[in-house]
Design goal:
The complex is a heterodimer of chains A (396) and B (424). Chain A is mostly helical. Chain A has helices at 28-49, 65-87, 89-100, 103-126, 181-217, 219-233, 237-249, 253-263, 266-280, 283-290, 295-303, 308-331, 342-350, 361-389, 391-395, and strands at residues 144-146, 159-160, 163-165. In chain B, α3 runs parallel beside α5 (163-175), α5 (163-175) runs parallel beside α6 (193-210) and α10 (314-325) packs antiparallel against α13.
């Protein structure tokens, strides 16, 4: 054991030959990440080889491609977002305090947390909307519907003549085939969450790798990667999706998440690159280099952590776009999800059958309201996160 | 490796060069080089503090980063305890990094805003394989106390500290690997004057306590005078003079050093007015002047032997000549020869009749609009040794080396006698 006598005139001297690091220096969170990914891989193998129909019989859950993608994304999200925040309480608390000072931040954070929770447990909790012609076109609570042109029609609440009043049983009303709007929107949240998290994780990994490599190493690496990004950005992901999904991948959420995830990260990579270029010349990077740090160490410990604000902010711009794209594609019947997408509901809600769309305004109305709230929340959240996480403000 | 002065030197720099290629055009061809460091040699002995001074852009910092191989030098050798570090492989280099550390200028960007000060200071330990958190913590706390902070500060973030405190922390980080050599690049220039003194005395204390060898880079001669044992003066990538600190201040042997010393504000009002002033701009390092790179600005530039110039009067003539050659003189702007002489501080008549005849003829040419002829005439007549030959760094009569034609083999170039200048 080398001397650790602190009172000596020299500083603590260390026998570097004995300090090899070794396996003990592998951190718990890294081990946890590997273990979790191995579990997912094992389950996948089991599902693929032994039980192709149903993996979890007690849940009656046939795990699909998007579910696997979502599982892996969730593992990565927990490792790189939840664990660091939980491990560094002081920092998390200071972020929370910063958020609390901004009412818009609190509201948007609340909405996004609710979005996340409902996305995970909502459809099981509320159940799926069922087709039931006996409850078709119920108006929302406190609203009325003149059913004179619709026959047959049953009003669940009180009716005065032909005018039907809404009830708390269907607070947001029902569609023309009697599906509960609340359950439809809850299911839409599930779709949005799966799509957002899966595509976002792909984007973050690719954009961070490309942007950091280009910005940190510069030179021909930068030239090659950024010219590729230029080319990629001229090809809209939605076109590639329509071609590939129609011909090969199937028009499901998996194809959408994969193609948008792999093709829509150019903008994020550009931002990360400029961030990395700035960090490269910062004093702490030069100090680490003069202490003998490798490129890998510098990138992992300094460049990427200091790009988080940029990455998170850029993601909060991408996620609502993804959700909107999915709804739009479903509206055009170019994307099918396992159950109901808001796009399809919207399409039927806007049709003139059996009454013009403004008489059943709550269908298109609540869908629009949900989408607007989601987009605005993510954007506001992104702005606030930028302010809260911005390392520049801490440097100053 | 046989140089006798390397024997007791911890660091020997020999002919260090760092040239940056200048690329231009569509194919990015190399069209020239910026000679940031061009053949610098010096030694740092054990326990000694050596200073490097010079204007900004003279290559001081590049010298520091390339002698530590933070940037790969393009030429020359650097011996650390007798071993050439430019030949090191990655394992040896890693060991060298533990023994030679660097402190940077700006303490405000020196710390990762996402790390606590403790994490930042401990970072070099982790890089070299000591990852035990408790041991790291003990070492960090000990060090923070030694640099004048408290152990609890390890949990704070960098933005909670002042500039001076951050520079103390930066020192702690540089010292945590227990290095033998510390390279400090402008360690105090970003700090308030009162804080500068504190940091410098801390550096001094730590150095004597730990037996550190130190290379201090600064543009501030006051700082250098306070802490350095020996000082090297750099101009445009070259070392022009190297001397023990007190000797350099008392008896500068290079006109550039003189000018630097004269730029230190003198609080004595009776001493005003005799400062050596530099004329002209700092040359572009991608296109340095021929010969001695200081000759376009040198107040003591050596006049040609064919003419007789009184002390220092050749400077104005050379300035006039360089302006004409650069095409900065437009004959239409002047009404008479006297105007031209006024503009360039030339006397109405030079003591040497031959020289004055050349000047008068050149002025006529300029007024006639023929600047090319004027340039040829002046160039032929007033060519100085300073632009023909680059002076070597040679031992001077004062006992320390300087690179100037006024000394050594070039002393036949005669007056003005520089070594007498410290009396005036």
């Amino acid at each position: 054991m080398p001397s650790t006598e602190l009172e000596s005139a020299r500083f603590t001297s260390i026998d570097w030959a004995t300090e090899s690091g070794g396996w003990r220096s592998v951190r718990l969170r890294t081990a946890g990440l590997v273990a979790a990914l191995l579990v997912v891989a094992a389950l996948f193998t089991y599902d693929y080889v032994v039980a192709p129909r149903e993996l979890f019989e007690f849940l009656d859950w046939d795990v699909t491609r998007i579910d696997w993608l979502f599982l892996v994304s969730t593992v990565l999200f927990v490792r790189y977002a939840v664990v660091p925040l939980a491990a560094n309480r002081d920092r998390a608390a200071s972020y929370a305090a910063e958020f609390a000072r901004r009412p818009a931040g609190v509201l948007s954070l609340g909405y996004i947390l609710a979005f996340g929770v409902l996305g995970v447990v909502g459809p099981e909790w509320f159940g799926l909307a069922r087709v039931d012609f006996g409850t078709k076109l119920q108006p929302p609570v406190f609203a009325t519907f003149d059913a004179a042109d619709v026959w047959p029609y049953t009003c669940v609440g009180n009716s005065v003549g032909d005018v039907c009043h809404g009830t708390w049983q269907y607070p947001l009303g029902t569609t023309r085939v009697g599906e509960d709007m609340v359950k439809l929107i809850v299911y839409a949240i599930r779709i949005g969450l799966q799509l957002a998290l899966s595509a976002a994780m792909i984007m973050v990994v690719v954009a961070t790798a490309v942007g950091t490599a280009a910005g940190y190493f510069g030179g021909w690496v930068d030239d090659v990667l950024m010219r590729y990004v230029d080319v990629q950005q001229t090809i809209p992901a939605v076109v590639v999706y329509i071609v590939l999904a129609t011909m090969y991948l199937g028009q499901g959420l998996f194809a959408l998440a994969l193609i948008f995830g792999l093709l829509d990260w150019g903008g994020i990579a550009r931002l990360v690159r400029s961030e990395a270029m700035q960090r490269r010349t910062d004093g702490f990077v030069r100090a680490a280099r003069s202490a003998g740090a490798s490129d890998f160490h510098v990138v992992r410990k300094h460049v990427i952590p200091n790009s988080t604000a940029t990455i998170v902010t850029a993601l909060t711009r991408q996620i609502p776009l993804l959700i909107l794209a999915q709804v739009a594609l479903a509206y055009l019947k170019l994307n099918n999800v396992a159950y109901r997408s808001l796009g399809e509901v919207l399409l039927r809600g806007l049709s003139g059958n059996p009454v013009p769309w403004h008489q059943k305004w709550w269908i298109a109305g609540f869908i629009t309201l949900f989408l607007v709230l989601t987009v605005v929340s993510f954007n506001v959240f992104g702005d606030v996160v930028r302010d809260v996480l911005d390392p520049q403000s801490e440097v100053a | 490796m046989t140089d006798e002065s390397e024997a007791d030197a911890i660091l020997s720099v020999r002919n260090l060069e760092k040239h940056y290629p200048v690329r231009s055009g569509l194919l990015r061809r190399v069209t020239g080089h910026v000679k940031a460091v061009d053949g610098v040699s010096f030694d740092v002995h054990e326990g000694e503090t050596v200073g490097l001074v010079g204007e900004s852009g003279c290559g001081k910092s590049t010298t520091a980063t390339s002698l530590l191989r933070l940037e790969e030098p393009t030429g020359g050798e650097v011996y650390f305890e007798g071993e050439d570090i430019t030949e090191y492989g990655s394992d040896d280099e890693q060991a060298f990094r533990r023994r030679a550390q660097m402190v940077f200028q700006d303490p405000n960007s020196a710390f990762d805003p996402r790390m606590t000060v403790g994490e930042s200071v401990a970072e070099p330990l982790g890089i070299h394989g000591l990852r035990d958190g408790d041991r790291q913590r003990r070492i960090v706390e000990d060090l923070l106390e030694r640099v004048g902070l408290s152990a609890d500060d390890a949990d704070q973030y960098p933005h909670e500290f002042s500039g001076g405190q951050k520079q103390r922390i930066a020192l702690a980080r540089a010292l945590i690997l227990n290095p033998d050599l510390l390279v400090a690049d402008e360690p105090v220039s970003a700090l308030d004057v009162s804080v500068q003194a504190e940091i410098l005395s801390l550096l001094d204390d730590l150095q004597s306590e730990l037996g550190l060898s130190m290379l201090l880079i600064s543009h501030d001669l006051g700082v250098v005078r306070q802490v350095c044992d020996r000082v090297g003066v750099m101009y445009l990538g070259e070392l022009v003079e190297m001397a023990p600190t007190e000797e350099l201040f008392a008896n500068p042997q290079h006109p550039y050093t003189e000018a630097l010393l004269a730029s230190i504000p003198d609080p004595d009002p009776r001493n005003r007015g005799d400062a050596v002033e530099l004329t002209g701009d700092v040359p572009d390092p991608s296109d340095p002047p021929s010969g001695c790179s200081f000759h376009p600005r040198c107040p003591r530039v050596v006049p040609p032997a064919d003419y007789d110039f009184p002390e220092d009067s050749f400077r104005e003539v050379l300035d006039f000549r360089l302006s004409v050659e650069n095409g900065d003189v437009d004959g239409d702007e002047f009404a008479s020869p006297a105007d031209v002489r006024d503009e360039f501080d030339l006397p109405p008549e030079l003591p040497d009749g031959d020289a004055d005849a050349v000047i008068s003829a050149a002025i006529e040419d300029v007024l006639a609009g023929d600047t090319g002829a004027a340039a040829d005439r002046l160039g032929d007549a007033f060519e100085t040794v300073c632009e023909r030959e680059a002076p070597e760094l040679v031992e001077t009569d004062a006992g320390h080396p300087a690179a100037c034609h006024l000394h050594g083999a070039a002393s036949e170039h005669a007056p003005p006698e520089l070594s007498a200048s410290d009396d005036d």
